Request: fold
Amino acid sequence: MKTVLRFFVWALRHRGLEIALLQGTTLIALSASAGPALLLDQWLKVLLCLVGSVLTVAHVFTLNDWADAGFDREDPSKAGHFQRFGLTRPHVLFGSCALGAAGLFACALSSDTGGFWGLGVIACGWIYSHPKIYAKGIPVASSACHALGQIPHFMLGSAVVEAISLRAVSLALVFSLIFAAGHLVQETIDSPADSRAGILTNAAVFGPKKALLASFVFFTAAFVQLIWASHSGSAAPASVFGALFYPVYALSFFYLLASNRSKLDRRRLEAHRAVYRAVFAGLGGYLLFVNLSQPTV
Reply:
């Protein structure tokens, strides 16, 4: 029992904020698929969907920590390693698999296709992290896992009320591009430690600046996709939001490049990450507010 408690304390302290933030994808999917009245009418399925989303995402993160146990020692900034909580790798693997199984069960109960989408989230996590595959150490494939993983994550929320639709796919692509871009920035930040550990990330293989430029392309594509979805009626009106906040992101990016011509500075990379996270957190809040303000689909 003490080991179980330590596992949950470690997971909450080390990954709790990231797990919570990623629920924005599911919440936006739920709000985009139906008005608040219908969501309240389906409250049990909505609750099961959210529980399933939290648990499957927690499984993906903790599985990654289990797989990276040997590599994390190379990065002094990763202070939340599970050994410091008295946990071993088998403890973390068992706990992670228990989270995944419980999450998949909740997903399956949330809708007819919920189990399928939950399994998709878990599969992307295993392909990315498991040592036998370890797509994290395969350039391009690592980004593909992040991009593809957001599609079933979004569809999990959308499936509670509606079947697969163009609207859901259009919005899922926005989040797919955002997370692929964010992953490239994180790889750029971690590239010195990853290179020392022999992890072949995009930034380690192609160079940090090229990975950062690729993130700019993906973020820009996400804004374009969002505006297209807005104009096609697939998303809440977001053209004004994009027009106002894309320049904020772009200015942060070009300032970062201009101030780091020879070598990218970690502190400035983290400041840039904070800027785009704030921009997209604002976007998520805006979409939730607009969607939930509408009484009907």
Q: What stands out?
A: The chain has one domain: 2-292.
